[in-house]
Amino acid sequence: MSDRQTPLVVFVNGEINEEQLAQMRAVSPRIEIRSFANRTEMEPYLAEAEVVAGAISPSGLARAPNLKWVQSWAAGPDEALFQEMVASPVVMTSCKGNGAIPLAEHAIMLMLMLNRNAPRWLRAQDERRWDRFYHGELNELTCGIVGLGYSGQDLALKAKAFHMRVLGMRRSNQPTPNVDEMFPRERLAEFLGESDFVVVTAPRTPETRGMLGEAEFRAMKPSAYFVTFSRGGIADDRALLRALQEGWIAGAGLDVHGQEPLPADSPFWTAPNTIVTPHNGATTLKTRQRGVDIFVDNLRRYLAGQPLRNVVDKQAGY
Predict the structure, then answer these.
(1) Active site residues
(2) For 140, what's the count of Cα atoms within 13 Å in the CB-facing half-sphere?
(3) Tell me: the pLDDT tens digits for 118-149?
(4) Fewer Cβ within 10 Å of end Cβ, the chain: N or C?
(5) Phi, psi of 10, rounded to the nearest 5 degrees
(6) For the stretch 128-154, what's the b/e string if a residue is b when 16 or more beta carbons lie within 10 angstroms of its beta carbon?
(7) Residue 36: φ, ψ to 5°
C-alpha cells in the first residue's frame, strides 16, 4: 500500500452526506477526501487519486495512473467491470451484503402480494368496492432460493418465520442455516418443480446469465410464482414473458429487468399477475450507510496493509 507519511488521496462520488465524509476522514489524518457529485465531475482530476469510492469509466481509468483500488457502492459491480478494469491491476471491492435485509424484505412483500392477490384489493379500493375473496397463505409452501449469499440467507430466515419449507441452490453444497435441502445446478429442474416460489438472489455472471429459459419455466408448477431482485438477465426475458402470458406459471414479482429503466412499451407492465418495481428493493438510507461502513472498514485495512473485504473476482464477475 501507499507510504505511511504521504497523504492517501481518496476520491468519492455518489450520494454521500457530510456526516459520512466525516466518518471516512476520521479513519486517519493521512486521508485526504475529495468529494464529487458524480463521475463526470470527478474524472478530470483522477491523476491525483490512489483510491476511488464510486463510479469510474474506462476513460477515467485511463486518466488514473496512480489508482490502486476502487470501491463500488453496488453489491454487484456489473457495470463497473468493463474490459479495461478487468485487465487492470486495480483492486475492486464491492458493498456486497449492504442491501441484504431490505432485499429479503422486498421479496417477502412480493411473495405476500402475489400469494394473496393484493392488486385485487388495491383495484377494489380505487373503486371503493368491498371485495372479499379466498386467498392464499405462505404457511407450508416451498420457497426455492437461487443464490444463498447475504440476501438469500436472510430471505431463508424470513421464509422460515412464515413457516415455509426452504430449498436452496448455490455453487457450493455447504449446509446453510434455515435451508431444508440444498440442490446442485444439475438438479435445477427438480428444484424448480418443487418450489411454490422461485426467488433469484444470485449475481449476474457468465455462469448465471440466461440460466432460466423456456425449459426451466416449463419445469415450474403452473401454480408457482417467479420473484427476482438481484440482477436482470438471469432469466431470459422472452421465455419469462411467454411463461406469464401463456400461463406456464402463476405470476411474477420483478424488481430487476433485462432492460432498465423498463421501457414504457414493455409488455411486462401489463403481464398477467405480475408486479413490477423499479429496481428499488434495497433503496434505503440504511443500505447506503452499511455501504459506507464497509468502505470505512476497508480504508482502515488498506492503511494497515491488511486484506480488504469484498474483493471482487474480476473474472467471475462478483
Answers:
(1) 231, 260, 279
(2) 2
(3) 999 999 999 999 999 999 999 999 999 999 99
(4) N
(5) -120, 120
(6) eeeeeeeeeebeebbbbbbbbbbbbbb
(7) -130, 150
Whether residue 229 contacts residue 151, with contact meaning beta carbons closer than 8 Å, is answered with yes
Fold of the domain spanning 100-276: Rossmann fold (3.40.50)
pLDDT in tens, 159-205: 999 999 999 999 887 889 999 999 999 999 999 999 999 999 998 88
Whole-number Å distance between alpha carbons of 90 and 81: 11
Q: Rounded to an integer, what distance in angstroms lies between the CA atom of residue 56 and that of residue 31? A: 20
- What pTM was estimated for this model as a whole? 0.92
Q: Has domain 8-97+285-304 been given CATH number 1.20.1250.20?
A: no
Instruction: Report the distance separating Cα 153 and Cα 148, nearest Å.
Output: 5
Peptide bond preceding 267: is omega within 30 degrees of 0, i.e. cis?
no
Listed residue (251, 254, 247) closest to 228, CA to CA: 254
In angstroms, rounded to a whole number, what is the distance separating the alpha carbons of residues 280 and 145? Answer: 20
Which parts of the chain fold into alpha helices (H)? 18-25, 39-42, 58-62, 83-87, 100-115, 118-126, 150-161, 188-194, 214-219, 237-245, 285-304
